[in-house]
């Protein structure tokens, strides 16, 4: 089979090649999938897409007309897919539901500790021979109240790590599943937490879950961590909350308009997104470019499960990891 990988990056190709036991022809396109690039999938039976690829009705219809038999996402989230359109075209969509929840949970901890202990600033100071501690005062995670919104695979992994720090974990999930967690209503979590971390999917209900009204409920100086999907957080309201000092620390691995920026080198470009640029000016904001998943263990598992999803097409077996509308 010929398999078209869109938004393909150099670092992931060795993992997909190593797991290509069936010797398929893997075509790696650096271009993102969209209405203009979809035709690159000509002669391909499978399309492998990533988080910011466009899987709208129009793109799916083009892929279907090209005789693509499967779209397999090499990620967990599927908010970029028009599932109803895929269903009516009879085009199955599969994903990698869990590759390493710990990878993302550990990245959350990296963001929390970096923001709290300011190790990114200390690194630069010491490099320049500046050993002054003024401005580097941090706080302990021990005994802090951490609110975890969404207790699926990643949220649970984070709760496990946080308990090791001796933090007091509050959880919110419309479908509570873990007996040992202290589930509370969302408003209570927002008012009580010193740190809030988002681990729910992006849906119409969770779009701008963190908005002006949510910030109004939070403790002054709260830390917010978002490693889930950018649009869970209203960027305009976030900038206002940073200016008013309601938000004391912000750690983002995802951003509302990240598809224009992330996964490419923009260092020679003039970035046009004024809200993103404003976020970067705050001394208490730390942004990483959607790298929560980016560990060796996770890439191995993504490649393994993706090839397994493709094998189920080859063998005409039911898809274990199909996403349905
Ligand atoms: P999951 O499906 O295991 O868990 C999601 C949880 O959110 C479920 O327990 C669900 O009941 C809950 N939920 C649904 N609606 C909610 C709401 N309105 N409020 C609170 N909770 C709600 O998903 P998993 O694997 O834990 O991933 C979470 C999110 O992390 C994904 O949707 C994805 O967007 C993001 N992600 C980010 C990565 C990164 O590299 N930064 C990598 C992988 C996933």
From TrEMBL:
One of its GO terms (molecular function) is NAD binding. Residues 4-323 form the D-isomer specific 2-hydroxyacid dehydrogenase catalytic domain. CDD domains: LDH_like_2. InterPro entries: D-isomer_2_OHA_DH_cat_dom, D-isomer_DH_CS, D-isomer_DH_CS1, D-isomer_DH_NAD-bd, D-LDH-like, NAD(P)-bd_dom_sf. The keyword Oxidoreductase applies. It comes from the Bacteria. Keywords: NAD, Oxidoreductase. Pfam families: 2-Hacid_dh, 2-Hacid_dh_C. The keyword Oxidoreductase applies. Residues 109-292 form the D-isomer specific 2-hydroxyacid dehydrogenase NAD-binding domain. PANTHER family: 2-HYDROXYACID DEHYDROGENASE HOMOLOG 1-RELATED (PTHR43026). Belongs to the D-isomer specific 2-hydroxyacid dehydrogenase family. This is Hydroxyacid dehydrogenase. It comes from Pseudoalteromonas ulvae. The lineage of its organism: Bacteria, Pseudomonadati, Pseudomonadota, Gammaproteobacteria, Alteromonadales.
């Amino acid at each position: 089979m010929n398999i078209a990988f869109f938004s393909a990056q150099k670092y992931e190709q060795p993992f997909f090649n190593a797991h290509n036991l069936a010797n398929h022809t893997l075509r790696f396109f650096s271009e993102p999938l969209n209405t203009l690039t979809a035709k690159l999938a000509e002669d391909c039976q499978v399309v492998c897409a990533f988080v910011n690829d466009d899987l709208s009705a129009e793109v799916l219809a083009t892929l279907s007309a090209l005789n693509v038999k499967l779209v397999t996402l090499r990620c967990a989230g599927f908010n970029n897919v028009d599932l109803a359109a895929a269903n009516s075209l009879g085009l199955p969509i599969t994903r990698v539901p869990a590759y390493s929840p710990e990878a993302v949970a550990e990245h959350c901890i990296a963001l929390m500790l970096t923001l709290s202990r300011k190790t990114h600033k200390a690194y630069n100071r010491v490099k320049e021979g500046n050993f002054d501690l003024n401005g580097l005062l941090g706080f302990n995670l021990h005994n802090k109240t951490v609110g975890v919104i969404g207790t699926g695979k990643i949220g649970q992994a984070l709760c496990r790590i946080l308990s090791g720090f001796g933090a007091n974990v509050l959880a919110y999930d419309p479908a509570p599943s873990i007996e040992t967690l202290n589930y509370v209503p969302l408003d209570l979590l927002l008012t009580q937490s010193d740190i809030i971390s988002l681990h729910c999917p992006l849906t119409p209900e969770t779009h701008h879950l963190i908005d002006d009204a949510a910030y109004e409920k939070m403790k002054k100086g709260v830390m917010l961590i978002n490693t889930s999907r950018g649009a869970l957080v209203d960027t305009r309201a976030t900038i206002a909350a940073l200016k008013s000092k309601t938000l004391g620390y912000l750690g983002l691995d995802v951003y509302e308009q990240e598809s224009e920026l992330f996964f490419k080198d923009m260092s020679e470009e003039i970035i046009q997104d004024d809200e993103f640029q404003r976020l970067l000016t705050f001394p208490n904001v730390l942004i990483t470019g959607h790298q929560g998943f980016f560990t060796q263990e996770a890439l191995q598992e993504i490649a393994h499960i993706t090839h397994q999803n493709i094998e189920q097409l080859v063998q005409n077996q039911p898809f274990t990891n199909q996403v349905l509308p």
